[in-house]
Amino acid sequence: MRRSVLLGQLADVVDDMLFSKLEHFVCVLYSPGNTVDVNKVRSTLFQSRYSVGLAQSMLSARSSGIDLSLLPPCRGSLRKHALRANYQTFIWRHAHVAKLELPSPTGCGWTVDDDKLEIDWVDGDIIPTQLVDILADRSNDDDDEEVDEDDVVDNIIDDIFYEDDDDD
Length: 168
Known about the structure:
Layout: H1 16-30, H2 38-49, H3 52-59, H4 75-93, E1 110-113, E2 116-119, H5 129-139, H6 149-161
Antiparallel strand pairs: 1-2
């Protein structure tokens, strides 16, 4: 059996096994179940805290009162958090080394822009293109066509929190 790389063992490596363990840990922090998919925990918490009516009001850009900071990060954001935590842990693990030659933090959850180190927050788009398309269609929809609001909200929630299986 292959052993996982430990957190901070290598400055620029968070292998899939280590990330799975970190993802499971975050799931346990936010949910008492045995879920190992942070996007599913995020979706479940969102659906349990906010009613369909509130989610619909969020779509209409009125005051929503939704505090997304109460939700765990999505998988793309969690991966960037894990990379930054791994890099910092690498530094701590080598605190006893007098002149440690650190690899560049670029690619470890940070980027360099105009010689300034900046946090790289998330992989991919912040809002899935499907969600942008749905919102654009809704805002331009002047027809008197009957729309099932529950289906629209369910589709948007699926687009926000679940990855397509085709991407793997």
